Protein: Putative transcriptional regulator
Organism: Paraliobacillus ryukyuensis
Amino acid sequence: MATKHEQILLFIESLKVGNKISVRQIAKELNVSEGTAYRAIKQAENQGLVSTIERVGTIRIEQKKKENFEHLTFAEIVGIVDGQVLGGREGLHKTLHKFVIGAMKLEAMMRYTEKDSLLIVGNRVEAHELAINEGAAVLITGGFDTEDHVKRLADEKQLPIISTSYDTFTVAAMINRAIYDQLIKKEIVLVGDIFTTYDDTYFVSGKDVLDKWYQLNEHTKHSRYPVVDEQNKVIGIVTSKDVIGKNRNITIDRVMTKNPMTVLEETSLAYAAHMMVWEGIEIMPVVDNHNKLVGLISRQDVLKALQHVQRQPQVGETIDDIVTNRLSVVSDDPHDMILRSEVTPQMTNALGTLSNGVLVSFISEAGSRLIRQLKKSDIVVENISTYFIKPVQLDHKLDIRPRLLEIGRKSAKIDIEVFNEKDIVGKAILIAQLIDRY
């Protein structure tokens, strides 16, 4: 039976997009406490089912699919520009497909303004009205208001009119930045993108006898299975190590490894890979927010997926991408490797010198490239001890020299020195675990 929390989430999910909800309303309709209703609404907001807007309230919005991440809802625009909704609140859940800056004559402006777009314009009431009639929302910059008849038209058409105190250029830059951030998020692979779903997952119950493990092992040739209770919650993992030599008639909950590590569908694949390598885990159950089994990931599948991602072109570059892509190879000899980069404005701190974060990115990338040359392996960094010896100015050139200190079957220790001209400006010791490339 579903918990009260789960019932509230299912109720919210069943609401029509655009519906307004409140803690008091949920508490009254579902006969739960206001505290329970509040926590469920907050989780619904985290899952992208609702959006809370100041002076408007909480509304049901369309949950985004991953391929639709580059499109923002008008509700998100309100939050981005710290805006005030003047009219058309019922349309806040809608998605905009492009925005138009109204810094032109009215006729030219209307040629570019179309349905589901957003017109960014100043104190031009006629443009506000024409845009609404064309099926576009309006974002008024400079903190201006609009006429009452335009607000009534916006309510009728369910198209938001939003006012912000920022100027047109700043608003366009903020929306552009938000879209770009969404694109970077879209490229981050999550566990939910690659896991084996519940219907294809083999698992056992804690009350099953060990003979069930032998039956599954013969059928699947696998040796590790999640263990669940009566509510389908994950309570353990059972492996060949747990069952060998034990009586086949005892129950699995007596021999399993309890409280296993689990991940959510929303967990990043990189985090899951790091935990599996760090802990030496071969499989990890995928659970929902109530620890109920929804699927499974294996270490091999995770690593293959990560290596596939590394070969894909990125739509949005992160700071790490920008930094490491500027590294050029002076020498690729693993016994005398030299990587070079110029210090650009993006790499500096407020004082105009190379930032700590960028230095760590250079060190990690240098260690990774050295191991790829030596063993054709990837690495998961365990620890970096970094020393800044001298500040490095903008436009100066850096030479990064990684040297192998120790290497084993599963780990490596690397010494990395950073030079500006002939002066040493930084030094690090990097310890990492090795991952075979499949």
